[in-house]
């Protein structure tokens, strides 16, 4: 791998090893399948996707990319895991999803190639897995058109998130494979907001995501203490 690429080889290997299970709703990726309708509805409610040109940064196996294309968007999904991209491409073929394409390219390289191209950019569950999240935020800002929307989701860094997102999710409830996350890489909302301001992205709103292990149900709330999403817009 190019040493200048903003990616952790160990993180890429981790998700590449699981790539064949991306579209199994009972696999390690079950939480992504369960939260996808919630985050899709929030994104579409703020920035209606039909007819828009959309970029999904860190798309993995294409769960969000595919659903945005089904909303009528023209979607490009990018990732640096070749195995995950192949799974995404195969699923699009098997499901007959039109309006979606996948590329192996970093956000930074695509920003240099296609600045100001997209109406909407999404970067979900990725920032906590890269060495320099602020670099990804800058690239997302460069990729979106002036006035366009950029959405991020990640995990807060505090004692509660260690208890819930690592001890609870990975070890007790086993919702995710052990070692999926590193607490030190979690990002406080204030830190992410700072990255966004430095990249000329104006904060438009935040939503937290909560989970009840008894009902096995996720929902959006105002509690951003663990999982959260933020919506931003590029300055016109």
UniProtKB/TrEMBL annotation:
Pathway: Cofactor biosynthesis; ubiquinone biosynthesis
UniProt entry tagged with the keyword Repeat: no
InterPro entries: SAM-dependent_MTases_sf, UbiG_MeTrfase
Coiled-coil ranges (or none): none
One example of a Gene Ontology biological process annotation: methylation
A molecular function (GO) term: 3-demethylubiquinol 3-O-methyltransferase activity
Binding site for S-adenosyl-L-methionine: 39, 58, 79, 124
Catalysed reactions listed for this entry: a 3-demethylubiquinol + S-adenosyl-L-methionine = a ubiquinol + S-adenosyl-L-homocysteine + H(+); a 3-(all-trans-polyprenyl)benzene-1,2-diol + S-adenosyl-L-methionine = a 2-methoxy-6-(all-trans-polyprenyl)phenol + S-adenosyl-L-homocysteine + H(+)
EC nos: 2.1.1.222, 2.1.1.64
Keywords: Methyltransferase, S-adenosyl-L-methionine, Transferase, Ubiquinone biosynthesis
PANTHER family xrefs: METHYLTRANSFERASE, UBIQUINONE BIOSYNTHESIS O-METHYLTRANSFERASE, MITOCHONDRIAL
Family assignment from sequence similarity: Belongs to the methyltransferase superfamily. UbiG/COQ3 family.
Its job: O-methyltransferase that catalyzes the 2 O-methylation steps in the ubiquinone biosynthetic pathway.
Protein name: Ubiquinone biosynthesis O-methyltransferase
UniProt source species: Hydrogenophaga bisanensis
Native organism taxonomy: Bacteria, Pseudomonadati, Pseudomonadota, Betaproteobacteria, Burkholderiales
